[in-house]
Write a structure and sequence with these properties.
Layout lengths: L13 E2 L11 E2 L7 E2 L13 H17 L6 H14 L7 E3 L1 H7 L6 E4 L2 E6 L2 E7 L4 H4 L7 E5 L2 E2 L5 H8 L6 E7 L7 E6 L1 E4 L3 E8 L2 E8 L6 H14 L5 E4 L8 H8 L10 E4 L5 E4 L11 E5 L6 H11 L4 E4 L7 E7 L5 E10 L15 E2 L24 H12 L13 H13 L10 H15 L6 H12 L1
Parallel strand pairs: 14-15, 15-18, 18-19, 19-22
Antiparallel strand pairs: 1-6, 2-3, 4-21, 5-12, 6-7, 8-9, 8-10, 10-11, 13-14, 16-17, 16-21, 20-21
Helix pairs in contact: 6-7, 7-8, 9-11
């Protein structure tokens, strides 16, 4: 394998920030196996086109350019031909980027950006949310992993690719974007208004948790950017100085990022006995990558994952699970196992093309399947609720999905509604009145806009409480008992 030009872009999604930038960059493997950054990396272009096929392409170009009813720009035809070729691949991660889009692509890892703070990707031809970033406007608006984007500001996104969708979502701080989303288990589309803001790229959070009299380190990684690995190692050393007796690494909702960041972190944990990653070419040849680490950590490690853990997060989870036998806790991950390279075309444009598959240490391809946890743990119903959509106040004897959602929220908040099937019963009315009483609202038993807003605020507040995070509690207890 020509390792001098293998470039890994370890996320297949777009970050809906200021430039719709892609949370990855071009990384090149020198012959020593280490990873370094490089501005231009062009694979050898040694594939010749059949002469008859080339003549057919040229003939079509000349026919349209010279005879179409209206004048057509040459650049338009060339770019259309490139886009057409890529479309036939039926691969959402292989795309053509003109000069403007390529510039946006390369603005991926600024220290901060303006937008809603969510990663989007393509899944079975649908543009979906991979994950909202921690404490982002998207998260606060109730957007969840796997929400499908249907409309942006009232306009359908049918026919738009990832980049065009991102361009419509991004915008200046303080402005509002309205998204219409389809959510699994909810019949009617959900509409959310998201106020764009500045999104700081702080990617590592750590602290010590006490459980069963033991000091357990906790480290959350929200994405893999340029500074993530160095910050992770710095904070890990600080935890180890305090004699932690176990560690929980949390990559839930982490949509991916730079391979180099993942590698630097894995060098802290994965020994040289097994590869932490394998790259497979289309002819089936595999190239394994190893660390030089000889000694494993003297304490147990567990990794928290969920359906929002994608790409680079899956590399980390797969490596720690298969190479070191560390335990994965939570839910099955997103499932992206392909590798892209942005190949410059000489005029500022480029083609981002899927070149390889990436495989786990044991050679498993997790694409569209994800990585299953060793210990499966879900979250409470409160984590699966969504903002109440009101066309009119919800009241007694109504029967619809919005009532069902409100009942799930009330139950999760401790106000027992009596039932959660969508019928607004007497007991549901009683629970609404109890909530209104405790939140200084008009006590009428109806869910109007003010009550719905208060319910949403209460949900966000409860979700931030550590004791309500069942997955985290399970991971800390698991490590403390090892």
């Amino acid at each position: 394998m020509n390792r001098k030009w293998i470039a890994l872009l370890m996320t297949g999604s777009l970050l809906t920030g200021a430039a719709g930038s892609y949370a990855a960059t071009t990384w090149v493997f020198p012959d020593d196996g280490e990873v370094s950054e490089k501005e231009q990396a062009t694979p050898p272009l040694d594939v010749a086109m059949d002469e008859n096929h080339m003549e057919k392409v040229v003939q079509a170009f000349q026919l349209i350019k010279g005879n179409y009813v209206e004048e057509v720009e040459e650049e338009q035809l060339v770019e259309g031909a490139i886009q057409g070729m890529l479309t036939t691949l039926d691969d959402p991660y292989s795309v053509y980027m003109n000069k403007e889009k390529a510039e946006q692509f390369n603005q991926a890892l600024d220290s901060s950006f303006e937008g809603i703070g969510a990663e989007i990707s393509v899944n079975d031809g649908k543009i979906v949310i991979v994950s909202p970033l921690k404490d982002s406007p998207a998260e606060k608006a109730g957007i969840k992993p796997n929400d499908q984007i249907l409309k942006i500001n009232g306009e359908s996104i049918d026919g738009l690719d990832l980049y065009e969708t991102t361009m419509k979502i991004r915008g200046e701080k303080g402005t509002i974007v309205k998204l219409e989303l389809a959510r699994k288990g909810v019949k009617a589309p959900i509409s959310v208004n998201v106020k764009r803001d500045e999104i700081p790229q702080i990617t590592v959070f750590s602290e010590i948790k006490e459980e069963y009299g033991k000091q357990v380190g906790y480290m959350e990684i929200t994405s893999f950017s340029k500074e993530t690995a160095s910050e992770f190692k710095k904070q890990l050393k600080e935890l180890e100085k305090k004699d932690i007796e176990g560690l929980v690494v949390d990559v839930r909702g982490n949509p991916g990022g730079l391979l180099e960041s993942v590698e630097d972190i894995l060098r802290e944990f994965v020994s040289n006995e097994k590869p932490y990653l394998q790259i497979e070419k289309r002819n089936g040849e595999r190239d394994p990558f190893y660390t030089s680490l000889k000694d494993e950590k003297p304490y147990p490690v567990a990794v928290l994952i969920d359906k929002g853990s994608a790409s680079a997060s899956e590399i980390l989870a797969g490596a720690l699970q298969e190479a070191e036998g560390y335990t994965l806790i939570g839910e099955t991950t997103f499932g992206k196992g392909t590798v892209q390279q942005a190949v410059p075309m000489g005029d500022g444009s480029n083609i981002k093309l899927t070149l390889f598959k990436w495989l786990t240490p044991d050679g498993n391809w997790i694409h569209k399947k994800g990585i299953k946890p060793d210990v499966e743990v879900g979250q409470s119903d409160l984590f699966h609720t969504h903002p109440i959509q009101l066309s009119e106040p919800l009241e007694k004897d109504m029967n619809n999905e919005q009532v069902k959602n409100a009942q799930m929220i009330l139950k999760g908040l401790g106000y027992e509604p009596g039932r959660t099937d969508g019928y607004f019963s007497d007991s549901t009315e009683t629970s609404v009145k109890a909530f209104q009483q405790e939140n200084d609202l008009a006590v009428n038993g109806k869910i109007d806009e003010k009550t719905a807003a208060k319910l949403e605020q209460a949900v966000i507040k409860e979700l931030k409480k550590e004791e309500n995070d069942i997955q985290l509690q399970a991971a800390i207890k698991y490590v403390a008992q090892k």
